[in-house]
Amino acid sequence: MSSESKPLGILKPLGGGDPIPLLRDEMIVGRRPTCDVRLDFENISGKHSVLRLVKGVWHIRDLGSTNGTSLNSQKISHEESVLPDDQIGFASHYFQLDYEPIGPAAAVTSKEALTDDQEIVEQKKQHSLMELAGLGADTEVAAAKRSRRATRPPERIVRLSADEAEFEDNLPEHVKKAPKPKVEIKDDDFMKIVEEDVKKKKK
């Protein structure tokens, strides 16, 4: 069977009129006699729109027409895919494109199905890897605390000499109550402390 005997789609006018078979994978719609689909109305431009079959799915693009092309009552500014339930508008003339989409599932699913997929993706993004592994947020916090404790260097116990202790006793109260300065321990100092502890244990 040739492609001419079996239409790739049928453009059905809404509100009455003869259906228009789409015999090629690219059809120009307009008022000119040379157009593939001729719509002889005053508000239709000479070359109004183009219908293209891409990977089994029909697409429509406006060709700079005066009164515009719409898809489901929304004016289009770039090429859009057309599904069998969609309503195409050339100016004020409306049609439905009857055909069987044969493209990939992603291209032929309805807009509602795509919205559902997006919601599923968003829900997946909300879960961390720990949660997906069956570990809750509380477990993550506890693990983080354990990790911080494990990497924290041991605190130094500072013993004051008799002179230093006597000096501290004579300090004013506000000085005694002031917080003691924090001394940052570098990695080298920490390693020295660990080495000293190991030596002491060996003795």
Q: Would you give an account of this structure?
A:
- This protein is α+β, with helices and mostly antiparallel strands.
- It is built from 7 helices and 11 strands.
- A 6-stranded antiparallel beta sheet has the order 2-1-11-10-7-8, with no helix packed on it. The chain has a 5-stranded mixed beta sheet with strand order 4-3-5-6-9, with no helix packed on it.
- The longest helix is centred in the middle third of the chain and has 16 residues, at 111-126.
- The chain is elongated and about 105 Å long.
- Residues 105-117 and 119-126 have low confidence and may be disordered.
Topology record:
Layout: E1 9-13, E2 20-22, E3 26-30, E4 37-38, E5 49-54, E6 57-62, E7 69-71, E8 74-75, E9 80-82, E10 87-90, E11 93-98, H1 105-108, H2 111-126, H3 129-132, H4 137-151, H5 162-169, H6 173-177, H7 187-202
Parallel strand pairs: 3-4
Antiparallel strand pairs: 1-2, 1-11, 3-5, 5-6, 6-9, 7-8, 7-10, 10-11
Précis, in short:
This protein has helices spanning 105-108, 111-126, 129-132, 137-151, 162-169, 173-177, 187-202; strands at 9-13, 20-22, 26-30, 37-38, 49-54, 57-62, 69-71, 74-75, 80-82, 87-90, 93-98. By secondary structure, the chain is of the alpha+beta class.
- What spatial order of strands do you see in the largest sheet? 2-1-11-10-7-8
| Low-confidence regions | 105-117, 119-126
Radius of gyration: 38 Å
Mean pLDDT: 75
Distance between the termini: 97 Å
Helix content: 25-40%
Q: Which class best fits the helix and strand makeup?
A: alpha+beta
The string of secondary-structure elements, in order, is EEEEEEEEEEEHHHHHHH
How would a textbook summarize the main sheet? 6 strands, antiparallel
Summed up, the helix count is 7
Envelope shape: elongated
- Please report the total strand number as a whole number: 11
Proportion in β-strands: 15-25%
